[in-house]
Structure formats: C-alpha cells, structure tokens
Amino acid sequence: MKNKGLYIVIGFISVIVLLLPSILPPFQLRMVTEIVILALFALTWKMIFHHAGLLSFGHSVYFGIGAYVSVLGWLHIKDLSFLSGILLGGLVAGLIGLILGAFLVRMKGTYFALLTLAFNQLIWAIVWKWRGLTGGDDGLGKFSKPALLGIIPMTNPKNFYFMSLVIIGISAFLCWYITKTPFGNVITAIKSNEERANFIGFNTNVSKLIIFTIAGFFAGISGALYAQFQEFIAPSAIDLGMSTNVLFMAFIGGTGSFWGPILGSGIFVYLSEYLSILTDRWEFILGFIFVIIVIFAPQGILGLYKKK
Amino acid sequence: MGSIFPTFVIQALHGLVYGCLLFLVSAGLTLVFGMMSVLNIAHASFYMLGAYFSFQMLRWIGNFWLGLIVCPIVVGFLGILMERFLLRRIHSAGHVQELVLTFGIAFMVMESVKWVWGTQPQLVPIPPSLNWSFNIMGNLYPFYRLFIILFSVIVMAFMTFILMKTRLGITVRAAVSDRDMVSALGTNTEFVFMLVMGIGSWLAGLAGVIAGPFLSTYPGMAIEILVDCFVVTVTGGLGSLLGAVVASFIIGQLSSFGILFIPRLAIVFAFLLMAVVLIIRPSGLFGEKA
C-alpha cells in the first residue's frame, strides 16, 4: 500500500511539473528551471555525504568545472552541439573528480572537509587568475546556444525547461539507481564501517573513487546546464559561496532521503528570490533559518517527517 | 647583495607579523578542535568581531588600550554563549552537524557585520603612542608592526605558561588526549570545554583588535583569515599547539615572500602546501590523531 501512495504522489508531481510552463509566468518558470538544475547539484553533494558519509566543502569545483569547460567548448569548438557540450562539461568534471578523488580517498571526517575546501580555493584561484582562458572576474558570456538536435530552439524558455527536466530527470534517476545496486551497498557499507568493508574484501578506496567520479560527472552536467541557463559564467560559480549554497540546500531539505536535496533546492531558490525582494538582509535571514533548522531538525525538513 | 638583503629582512618581518596574528587565531581553533573534535568555522568570526568592536570603541571612547582589554572579553563571552546554548544542544547529533552549525553561525555573523557596519572597509587608526617608525637598514619600518609581534609573543608565552604549569592547563592537555578518561576521573569536562571555547574566542578577539589597524577591517576579513587558519591547523596537525606555531610562521613567510616573487600565484601557495602536507602526512606535521 505504501508503494501505491508513492506512485500516486509521483504521478501527481509529474503532471504538475509537465503543466508548469503553461501555468506559470516566465519569471516563475525561470525560477523553476533553476530549481531543477540546482536540484541535481544538491543530489550529487548528498551522494557523497549521505552514502559515503563524507562532508564536502568544495563541491562547487565540479559544478564550476562543468560550467566552464562546456562554455569553453561552445566558444572554441566549431559546431559543438548542445548535448555534446553538456556531456563534455560532465566528463571533464568527472575526470577532475577522479583526480582530486585520488587524493581525497584517504581522508576522513574533518580532514576530508578541509582538503575539499583547499582544493576548492585552489581551483577557484586558478580560474580567477587565468584571465586569458576564463576571463577572470569578467567571466565568459556570448557563447552559442545551439538548438537541441539541430531543430528545437533552446532560446525558448519552455523548451529549455523541458530539456533541463529530461536531462536532470535521467541524471537523478541514475544517481538514485546507483545507490540501489550492489555497488551502492558497498558505498553504504563503507559509511557504516570502512575497516570492516575493507576486511570483507572490498577495495574501499576504489569504491570511493568511483562515487567521487560519478558525483563529479553529474555535478558537471548540472553546472553546464546552469551556464546555459544563465547564458553567462563567472568565478562565482566555482567559489566557496557556491559550495555553501549546496550545503544550505541539502541541509534545509534533508540529507537523509532522495527528495530532501530537491525540496531543499526549491526552498533555497524561492527563499533567496523572495527574501531579496522583501529585504536587503535576506542573506542574514537565510543564515538564521539555516541555523534554526540545523539545531531543531538536524536531519532536515524531510528528516522531521520521517521520524513520525 | 647590499640592495637585496634589506628587502629580504623587511619581507621576513611582514611575514612574521602575519604569522603572529595567524597563530593567535589558530591557537584557539586548534585547542577547541583537540578537545571537542569540532572544527569551529565561526572562530574567525570572533576575530572579525574583535576588530569591529574595537573600531566601535575607538569611535565612542577613543581609547585603543581600553578596547584591547574590553573587546576580547566581550568576544570571549560570546564564544561561551555559543558553546553553552548552541553547540551543546546538538552535540549528540554528531560532529558533522556541529561543523555545519558553526558554519551557519559564521554566515550570520558576517551578515550582521554587513548590516551594522556596512560592506565598506572601515579605517581603524593606529593609536598615536604606537604610530611612529624606526630605521632598519635604511628602511623606515612602522613600530606598530613590531608591537604586534611583541604583543603576540607575550600572549603566547602567557598561554604556554597556563597550559604547561597550571592545573587548568594540565586538565586541558589531558582532555585533548583523552576526554572520556578525564571526565571519568571527576573533572567537569563540559565546564572545561566552555572555558576553552571562551579563551579561544578571547584570543581570536585579541588578534582582531590588534589586526584592525594593520589589516583592513571589512566583512570579508573573517573568511580571509579563516582559510589561512585552516591551512595552519591542518598543516600543523589538528589539536597540536606546537604545530600551530610552526605552521603559522611557515604560512606567514610563504604569503609574504609569495607576494614578493610571484604575486599572481601567491594565494595558491598556502593551499598547495596544505594539500601536499595532507597527501604526504594526512595527520599534519605534528598531529597524532588522523
């Protein structure tokens, strides 16, 4: 019976999601698109946190790399199609995940968090200073927005919304599916007791490396889409602030479940949008809400619901 | 040689000044971590509050020395409040939640500072009694920087004395190595935690007050020094005071000479050092617990 209810809810949500572009004014549609894109980013962060038990303070590295690489692709590679550009961003971000992961696998707890932070600052500094390639502070804009499959124009916000929805939907499904495979179980085993998992015969380092690569890949996809969404990319996509945002999203929504980060990204985007209209001090209020949630609902909003 | 050498000395002195400030801030951070296993991201916010409080004191009363005494105490008290009413509440939820909570607090402090004092850097004047320069090998060097070094060394010596020779210091050192055992022996570790948190915040506030006239006082100063402090504590080994001393001076010199030789990549050096140390020796230079 529980499953039936779940299917009804999912069906209900899908209908709403499909109808949204016809109902919402363009401004609202833009926000929903942003939520959809950021949801994947938050999901990949949660993959590392919830499944592998590691707190990453530098997750925007993969997001930003994905964004920058795909933008550079659209700028410099002739006739790079929409999807290949996004895939390119994802692949390079995955590769970065693999490289950084090689150093990160041995770290635990606070040391892991701090090394991710150091990598984040390092790569942000490189992006920021390498003006010739990345445009430095000025960022990169005016890159092409190729039509999907050569026929569907992406300049139409409705088309862009559906396309993001499909790409993010597939990616999110894959992220979810991975956790249900035997490999996903190994990752969970590592979280509960790495030594024991190692002792049983799993190479925990390789497993962790794989999960970093996958998380990097999907974060890169999300970043590449975000670049197309903004039609502009600046170092702020790869700085600590972006890593902070993903932490906010995941913790507000709840780090324990699949829907948590998605809900969190929704709340985050809406809150920052509307609070910034209401008051200049919206960031303060956002931080306040965050602290309250961490104190009273350490498992996030969805965590509260689960307890009952 | 004749022309290069003085520049070298000046640059080394710059590095020493920054290293001293880094140490004052990192000392609290590393002690708190050693005792509670909590990396207090809000620690650097206390440093920033120290600087801003002192700025406000100067505006109201105009006495730097009074600010130097009062502001760090206020900041230390805030640290105690934070430990007592926020951190302790979610202690049972785990270290990650504590880390994330301190992060949220740091964010709020930064926003409050922007709210109260604005985003523009505030100019904190050097007290007149310290505002003079002396001659080092043909270069005029501001005395205030020397004052920072002297003051930090005195504070450091004082802290070392407390830590090594007093009963409180012995309890703290014991709690760093095994808090459960100390608690079982009948010490009120919760109270000691609170006290250490207070002292750590007091040190950070102190560093903030003396850094105000030297570095610029603006809402980003916390993040700026926080990141360097992380590098210091991690490179030196989390929980190790000796490691914090050594790493502070390395980072101080590195940033000072980095700016002299390769200004474009100066900010990268510290992280590179931290990454390299962590990769070769994951527990840091003097750390024991990994």
Quick summary of this structure?
The complex is a heterodimer of chains A (308) and B (290). Chain A is mainly α and 308 residues long.
Structure description:
The complex is a heterodimer of chains A (308) and B (290). By secondary structure, chain A is mainly alpha-helical. Chain A is 78% helix and 1% strand. Chain A has a domain at 29-237. Chain A contains 14 helices and 2 strands; from the N terminus they run ααααααβααααβαααα. In chain A, strands 1-2 form a two-stranded antiparallel ribbon. The two termini of chain A are 18 Å apart. Chain B is mostly helical and 290 residues long. Chain B has one domain (22-280). Chain B has helices at residues 4-36, 43-60, 64-87, 95-117, 143-165, 167-177, 179-184, 189-211, 221-236, 241-261, 266-280; strands at 133-136, 139-142. In chain B, helix 1 (4-36) packs parallel to helix 5 (143-165), helix 3 runs antiparallel to helix 8 and helix 9 (221-236) runs parallel beside helix 11 (266-280). Chain A binds chain B through residues 49, 55, 103, 106-111, 113-115, 117-119, 121-122, 125-126, 129, 240, 244, 247, 251, 281, 283-284, 287-288, 290-291, 294-295, 298, and chain B through 33, 37, 39, 86, 89-90, 93-97, 99-101, 103-105, 107-108, 111-112, 114-115, 223, 227, 230-231, 234, 238, 264-265, 267-268, 271-272, 274-275, 278-279, 282-283, 290.
Please state the average pLDDT score of chain B.
84
- Any idea what the radius of gyration of chain B is? 19 Å
Structure annotation, total helices of chain B: 11
- SS elements, strand count of chain A: 2
User: Quaternary arrangement of the chains shown?
Assistant: heterodimer
Give the SSE order of chain A as H and E letters.
HHHHHHEHHHHEHHHH
**Percent range for helical residues of chain B?**
over 70%
Total E-strand runs of chain B: 2
Dominant shape of chain A: globular
- Silhouette of chain B: globular
Strand count, sense and barrel status of the largest sheet of chain A are:
2 strands, antiparallel
Which two chains touch over the largest interface? Answer: A-B, 34 and 42 residues
Q: Give the integer mean of the pLDDT values of chain A.
A: 82
Low-confidence spans of chain A: none
- Structural class estimated from helices and strands of chain A: mainly alpha
How far is the N terminus from the C terminus of chain B?
45 Å
Topology order of chain B in helix (H) and strand (E) letters: HHHHEEHHHHHHH
